[in-house]
Amino acid sequence: MDDPRRLGQVLLLPALLLIGLLLLLPIASTVITSLHIDTPFAPKRFVGLQNYAQLRDDPVARGTIEFTILFVTVSVALEILLGLIFALFIHHRFRGRGLVRASVLVPWAIPTVVAAVMWKYMLNDQYGFINLLLHGGHIESYRAYLADPGGARFAIILADVWKTSSFAALLILAGLQAIPDELYEAARVDGAGPIRTFFFITLPLLRPAILVALLFRIMDAFRVFDLVYVMTQGAPGGATQVLQFFGYQKMFPEQQFGYGSAVSVVVFIIVAIFSLLTVRLLGSRIFEESS
Amino acid sequence: MMPALCNRILRRSGFVLGLVILLLFSLGPFLWILVTSLKSPAQIAARPPELWPAFDFTFFRTVFAQHSFARYALNSLVVATCTTAAAITLGTLAAYPLARLRVRFRRTLLALVLMASMFPQVAIVGGIYRMLSAAGLLNTYPGLILPYTALTLPLAIWILVSFFREIPPELEEAALVDGCGPLAALGRIILPVSAPAVFTAAILVFIYAWNEFFFALLITTDPAVQTLPVGIAKFPGEYEIPWGDLAAAAVVATAPLVAMVLGLQRRIIRGLTAGAVKG
Predict the structure, then answer these.
(1) Which of A32, A34, B146, B178 is 20 to 30 A from B186 in CA distance terms?
(2) CATH number for the A36-282 domain, one of 3.40.190.10, 1.10.3720.10, 3.30.470.10, 3.10.129.10?
(3) Rounded to a whole number, what is the distance in Å from the CA of A212 to chain B's nearest CA?
(4) pTM of the full structure
(5) pLDDT digits (tens, 9 = 90+) for B97-129
(6) Which residues of A touch B214 (CB under 8 A)?
């Protein structure tokens, strides 16, 4: 026990065992299952890449991939933009800043399922706050946003932007705090106005923080599930169908384990590409040997 | 002088206006569900919807009386607490060598842990489901606690490694020179010094476990072990959603988190950004 190297291995063992057993092994098993036809109705058999070929030719899968990419692009872009604006506000020194920061954190802390219920109710066709806000007492003009494809897509994106912009804001805030005050001082002495200072000092120095926020948000957005499950179940007409929900539907309600696993492997590969980028980016900061 | 003053007032009011919009955006949906939960059953069907509630607690009473809701809350509390205890214990043990000792394949291990935290749930749920099913753990507390611990371990390890690395090595070396083994150094020096970091990691793990939905949905089908998110997502009422009850349920599920965020804002922000941005 006195040999630090041996001790290190012993201390690491339980955590690595659990991660290996419950995270890594299941990935391997999903990849293997994706190469089989596996349903409760027939014996399991190996079919090679047939599930992937089916996925390529499935028009529903194509629509799902298209909306997932649209969802990720639009919501992450909005989240980074709003996150940047939020961060600039809560970076300022003012009375009650702690309380404002806590309020910004509220959407992040609320369970996604609850957030989805909230937005479903906000957008309700009879009692929704959004309808009240837009149409006031004219209840004849109240709309059922979740019933039309465009409205439902907008609703899912809105709920995600609400829920996760604060996370982006916090990462960008940490970046803001790392910018030395002397730089702003120097810019002021040189007579640069606030807009020039923002574009020539703040934004370039925030680039690493924004990039990290961007990668984290992209990975998370590709995994969207709870919002779709609660708000639309993929409706209307599959307009809000996303990859994780599609994979879940194939695997569990429809019991097509092979095909569902193929969908899951695709989501996994997409997320893995972004997580490799993240690891590379963060790696140098956290992995360097301690002196 | 005058234009400068005008300018300052203008800028100041612009800033305040921005803050108000920020607050309304962040808190609005929660306030709306809070108002809804406090309405009276007669008020809830009013159209257009009324803004001011009657502060009638009927919906809170029905939710606890009718919908096995107290059970969901208890289950969430048990599962989140056990997950936090397990993930923080194993996470601390693993983070210490990764941060402070010489470990072979250290970089690979850290990269692997980081990547494992980003696996899409749907890509691992099949294997986990089969394993739990074979072990007879579906519809049990351990059936949720085990995967939750594995899922939150990367987060805990990552936060703890980045905090442990900030502790000056001299502290630990002094202990080692005094004849303490590395394990004693962990217990007597590192842990007491980094108690705030451990606490921070614990808050984040707890929130994750309290909010998790995907695995809970598939692993628990028996309401006796289901957690709040599942209970709320599967709220009874296929055709007519009982919005008042649902709003009360949502408020109960969210209140502990809002309280946590209000009280521990600083810690949560540090924990979330630990390791992501230098500073």
Answers:
(1) B146
(2) 1.10.3720.10
(3) 7
(4) 0.92
(5) 998 887 888 888 888 888 888 899 999 999 999
(6) 225-226, 244, 248
